[in-house]
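Quick one, tokens below:
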């Protein structure tokens, strides 16, 4: 790392006023290490998806009271709770085995005091499509309530509790989580389930992180517009009014949360040819200055948020990679072992497809810091003979399927683009996308 004079924010962090706890999400990792310190910051691994814990998954967001993570029991579909201090997972709901019910918890967020959980519950009727419900429950499993229940494919995902616990900020789509249209940010009353639309997004590709300001007046969130691979950051007043742009352009900007003292927001960005943590001063929901670099050379961070003066984030330690190998078809023997087509430190890759002439390998590429399942992919085209790879933008939601055309100059993509599901032609020379056939019967691609 290059030596340079710390900024005012770096000096503040270096004094230990912000304790950073490290939550690692990986594959087959060893048990958590104790803790390490760098520049007086304390890092501790609090979770890893090792083989012993693969039956559970943690919900997004920071833990309540710095201790409790909502989680999902994949063996039954029930809502669960992970206690960091006791290193213990407990089931909250009890709907029975899969053989008895297909119901399942699909998203969850815990209140800052760790006492209540809001969650999305998919309720099926004898295995048939039913309702998606926004529910609330106490941490001890009592007081369960259904706040909103609407027929599928309606989708409502809780994102944050207000500090007084009187409302939940959620995102909803009338056409389900896979639709790119009609995304709404809503405020739902925990008293009677009534809701008020804060903002409607007609062409949003995805709504990522959302955090409420310490005074409870504003919600800040990052949003990937349709046709883009980069997120921008906005703020909206919960009492009403249009959203205001806080951070736009100049790269992919992921909201990390509000400074606990309310003076601004932290965000993670790939601007300035690197990846680092930035702070933007914010007053009354408006940016009041330029972003200031807090820490540079911070790679592969996926934000979760503050819980008090502790910060939680994820790091992927092992990820999917496209590999190639040489086979002797006649003997069925492997001539050369599988080799990754790119350096793991650069990111991860998936969905390989060979051109008809065997000269090119196409794949979806996700740079460092972009989690599995995210929409910010780019299309890689690798020459078998030269080993060189060129990249193109890939403005399709995840779930889109790649097929080579009759030559090596075009690809067919089955998915959704510009609000239309169908078969699209991607010109590999110009990057132009043309709709060949609208196919509403395919259903919306995943967002």
């Amino acid at each position: 790392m290059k030596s340079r004079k710390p900024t005012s924010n770096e000096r503040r962090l270096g004094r230990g006023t912000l304790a950073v706890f490290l939550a690692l999400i990986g594959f087959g990792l060893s048990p958590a290490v104790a803790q390490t310190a760098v520049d007086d910051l304390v890092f501790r691994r609090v979770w890893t998806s090792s083989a012993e814990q693969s039956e559970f998954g943690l919900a997004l967001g920071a833990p309540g009271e710095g201790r409790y993570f909502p989680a999902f029991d994949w063996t039954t579909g029930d809502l669960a709770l992970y206690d960091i201090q006791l290193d213990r997972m407990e089931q909250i709901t009890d709907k029975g085995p899969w053989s008895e019910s297909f119901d399942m918890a699909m998203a969850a967020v815990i209140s800052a005091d760790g006492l209540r959980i809001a969650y999305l519950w998919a309720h099926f009727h004898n295995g048939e499509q039913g309702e998606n419900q926004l529910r609330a429950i106490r941490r001890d499993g009592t007081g369960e309530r259904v706040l909103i229940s609407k027929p599928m494919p309606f989708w409502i995902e809780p994102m944050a509790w207000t500090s007084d616990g009187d409302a939940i900020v959620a995102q909803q789509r009338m056409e389900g989580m896979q639709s790119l249209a009609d995304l709404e940010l809503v405020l739902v009353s925990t008293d009677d389930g009534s809701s008020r639309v804060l903002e409607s997004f007609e062409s949003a590709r995805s709504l990522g992180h959302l955090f409420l300001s310490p005074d409870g007046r504003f919600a800040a969130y990052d949003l990937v517009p349709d046709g883009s691979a980069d997120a921008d950051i906005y703020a909206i007043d919960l009492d009403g009014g249009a959203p205001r742009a806080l951070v736009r352009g100049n790269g992919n900007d992921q909201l990390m949360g509000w400074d606990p003292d309310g003076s601004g927001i932290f965000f993670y960005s790939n601007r300035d040819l690197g990846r680092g943590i930035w702070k933007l001063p914010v007053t009354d929901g408006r940016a009041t200055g330029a972003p200031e670099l807090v820490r540079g050379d911070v790679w592969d961070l996926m934000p979760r948020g503050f819980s008090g003066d502790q910060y939680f984030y994820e790091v992927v330690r092992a990820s999917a990679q496209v590999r190639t190998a040489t086979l002797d078809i006649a003997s069925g023997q492997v001539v050369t072992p599988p080799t990754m087509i790119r350096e793991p430190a650069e990111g991860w890759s998936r969905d390989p497809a060979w051109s008809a002439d065997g000269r090119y390998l196409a794949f979806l590429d996700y740079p460092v810091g972009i989690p599995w399942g995210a929409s910010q992919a780019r299309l890689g085209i690798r020459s078998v003979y030269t080993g060189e790879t060129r990249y193109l933008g890939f403005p399709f939601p995840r779930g889109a399927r790649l097929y080579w055309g009759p030559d090596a100059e075009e690809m067919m993509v089955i998915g959704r683009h510009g609000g239309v599901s169908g078969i699209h032609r991607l010109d590999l020379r110009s990057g132009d996308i043309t709709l060949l056939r609208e196919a509403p019967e395919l259903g919306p691609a995943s967002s």
